[in-house]
Amino acid sequence: EAGVAQSPRYKIIEKRQSVAFWCNPISGHATLYWYQQILGQGPKLLIQFQNNGVVDDSQLPKDRFSAERLKGVDSTLKIQPAKLEDSAVYLCASSFGLGAYEQYFGPGTRLTVT
Amino acid sequence: DQQVKQNSPSLSVQEGRISILNCDYTNSMFDYFLWYKKYPAEGPTFLISISSIKDKNEDGRFTVFLNKSAKHLSLHIVPSQPGDSAVYFCAASSNQFYFGTGTSLTVIP
């Protein structure tokens, strides 16, 4: 079974530029999550989708971050414009459904904003 | 507001001995708890979970204990192996998942 795929693996941009990350979840997983993990911290949930609908985006900085999950499969996370404090690893995860299901994580995208 | 806390940033254990990783939480509404293991440059990998209706769950060398009255979760690894060296995150869920800051485990051969 293929795991969660993410691209790119690494990205370096200057502040005020824009960037997009892509995630392909495990086939059949209805729930998709985007997390931000700053160095030395645990992953922090940014947004959670159930199929193509948003379940929770309370911690997404909506003035600069956006995410979509077209057709309930792949998802993209965009930052526009980026700030220095956005430097982090962005993790995508998927699970079979909402609630008591373990999440499967992709390898992450390491973003450096200079 | 850190709802899930791992107060030990690092832990070193001799191979063959027991590793005990601890986690505390503040929200009594959490009903599902998980442990993840993370190697460098990889995403976290699910290890073991426990529902709030249980106080123990075992899977091979890994056992998770839940003490709801103390709002405390622990992961026991017996016996510890060098390949267990990684960062371990605990997570808790009600309708959203919250992660601790991680404990770096080193198993010394």
Give the arrangement of secondary structure elements.
The complex is a heterodimer of chains A (114) and B (109).
Chain A: E1 5-7, E2 10-13, E3 19-24, E4 31-37, E5 44-50, E6 53-56, E7 65-68, E8 75-79, E9 88-95, E10 104-105, E11 109-113
Parallel strand pairs in A: 2-11
Antiparallel strand pairs in A: 1-3, 3-8, 4-5, 4-9, 5-6, 7-8, 9-10, 9-11
Chain B: E1 4-5, E2 10-14, E3 19-25, E4 32-38, E5 45-51, E6 56-59, E7 62-67, E8 72-77, E9 86-93, E10 97-99, E11 103-108
Parallel strand pairs in B: 2-11
Antiparallel strand pairs in B: 1-3, 3-8, 4-5, 4-9, 6-7, 7-8, 9-10, 9-11
Features:
heterodimer; A: 114 residues; mainly beta; seven-stranded mixed sheet; four-stranded antiparallel sheet; globular; B: 109 residues; six-stranded mixed sheet; five-stranded antiparallel sheet; 0% helix
Describe this structure in words.
The complex is a heterodimer of chains A (about 110) and B (about 110). Chain A is mainly beta and about 110 residues long. Helices cover about 0% and strands about 50% of the residues of chain A. Chain A has strands at about 5, 10-15, 20-25, 30-35, 45-50, 55, 65-70, 75-80, 90-95, 105, 110-114. The mean pLDDT of chain A is about 95. Chain B has about 110 residues and is an all-beta fold. Chain B has strands at about 5, 10-15, 20-25, 30-40, 45-50, 55-60, 60-65, 70-75, 85-95, 95-100, 105-109. The interface of A and B includes residues 41, 42, 99, 105 and 106 of A.
Brief overview, please?
The complex is a heterodimer of chains A (114) and B (109). Chain A is mainly β.
Q: What is the helix content of chain A?
A: under 10%
Helix-strand pattern of chain A: EEEEEEEEEEE
Instruction: Quote the beta fraction of chain B.
Output: over 45%
Largest contact between protein chains? A-B, 24 and 25 residues
Mean pLDDT of chain A: 94
Alpha-beta classification of chain B: mainly beta
Note the overall shape of chain B.
Answer: globular
Low-pLDDT residue intervals, each spanning 5 or more residues of chain A:
none
- Tell me the number of strands of chain A: 11
Q: Please compute the radius of gyration of chain A using only Cα atoms.
A: 13 Å
The percent range for strand residues of chain A is over 45%
